[in-house]
Structures are given as structure tokens and as C-alpha cells.
């Protein structure tokens, strides 16, 4: 079953029924991303997007600042460690060690709700859907972890916002380079390349 972005709105009634049957057959929620069993894994990539990838977070720079601060506060309260994070105008990623993923996703949902209420009030758009639900992706190996760390720190470059990691203020790239050192960061980048990392990750509804 193909899964391009925003597939749902492009489907006719019969195609929608087929998609729902496919999701139900795989044990996925009908209208939201599946949360997969982690089998004891503790390191995860957390990702969440604005609904239909509208630039709600990036409405203005101060909003980017405020959201980044609130996101980091939630992470600080509910994860053991945040290894990397990046907030973009329409989505965010965080690579974390989280002993209780269910609780973390719940708290991120509450954050999304609070933020959505405030932003919709600011823009006089009550009832507008702002965020799509956060999803987690367990790290399957050390190689997966290091490639993911590179992916998060490179995200603003990947999406064309800046040319260099350290030029993007809403993320951990500068801190990572300061702690790791430029030469070691270069080695990790060469050893764990992105290739097609992250391609076609969106669920059909995102």
C-alpha cells in the first residue's frame, strides 16, 4: 500500500475503505501513526509534525524560541537524556533515552494541546488542528543511533533552511560540536552517513 503525504484527502471512498482495511489488518490505529513495541529498547527518535506540515511553529521567530524552550522542559522532566534535538518551522525531532515512552508521548500530547490552544487564540483560529500526533522510532543498533544523531543535527540543512549545522539556532548541533569536537564529529558523519535516512517516513495521514 503506498503511503505518500496527505494521501487520505486524495482518495475516493472505495480507496479510503481499502486503506482502513489495510491499516486494521496490520493492527495499526485507523487514523493515527502506529506505536510499535520497543522490546526493551530505551533510545528513541521522537518526531512530530504540524498538521499537513503547515509552518505553525515557525509563524515567527519568538514562537520558535518559546516552543523549543517548552519542548526541552518536557523532555528534561520525562527522559533520562536528550542526545540531539531540532525544531523546524513545521516539525521537530528529538533523540532521547526514555524509560517510559507511553508517559512521554502523553506529556508531548499535552504540550501540543496547550500550544495549539495558545496559538489558535493568538491567530483567532479556534478549532484549527495544529499538530499531528508524536511518534517514536526505537534505535535498533548503535549504527542506527549514530545515523539518527547525524540526521537530527543535519535536519535544518536537509530541509534547506541553512547551509551549516551550527547556523540553525533551534537545535543541539552547536552544543554537540562543542562537546564532541569537530574532528570526532566529522568521523561520526563519515562513518554513519545519512544516505536515504528518513525517506518516506510519514504516515499516510501526516
Give me some keywords for this one:
single chain, 206 residues, alpha+beta, Alpha-Beta Plaits, 4-stranded antiparallel beta sheet, 4 strands, globular, disordered N terminus
Structure, explained:
The chain is α+β, with helices and mostly antiparallel strands and 206 residues long. It has helices spanning 7-10, 13-25, 61-78, 101-123, 142-153, 155-158, 173-180, 182-191, and strands at 43-49, 81-87, 91-97, 135-138. The protein has a single domain (36-191), classed as 2-Layer Sandwich (Alpha-Beta Plaits). The chain contains eight helices and four strands, in the order H-H-E-H-E-E-H-E-H-H-H-H. Strands 2-3-1-4 form a four-stranded antiparallel sheet, sandwiched between helices. The longest helix is centred in the middle third of the chain and has 23 residues, at 101-123. The two termini are 15 Å apart.
Q: In terms of topology, how is this protein built?
A:
Blueprint: H1 7-10, H2 13-25, E1 43-49, H3 61-78, E2 81-87, E3 91-97, H4 101-123, E4 135-138, H5 142-153, H6 155-158, H7 173-180, H8 182-191
Antiparallel strand pairs: 1-3, 1-4, 2-3
Distance between the termini: 15 Å
Percent helix range: 40-55%
- What is the class in the CATH system? Alpha Beta
Choose one word for the global shape. Answer: globular
Beta strands, count:
4
Number of domains: 1
What is the CATH homology-level superfamily? Answer: Transposase IS200-like
As for the CATH topology, it is Alpha-Beta Plaits
What's the average pLDDT?
Answer: 84
Please list the strands of the largest sheet in the order they lie side by side: 2-3-1-4
Cα gyration radius (Å): 18 Å
Structural class determined from secondary elements: alpha+beta
Query: Could you describe the largest sheet, including whether it forms a barrel?
Result: 4 strands, antiparallel
- Low-confidence sequence ranges: 1-6, 27-39, 201-206
How many helices?
8
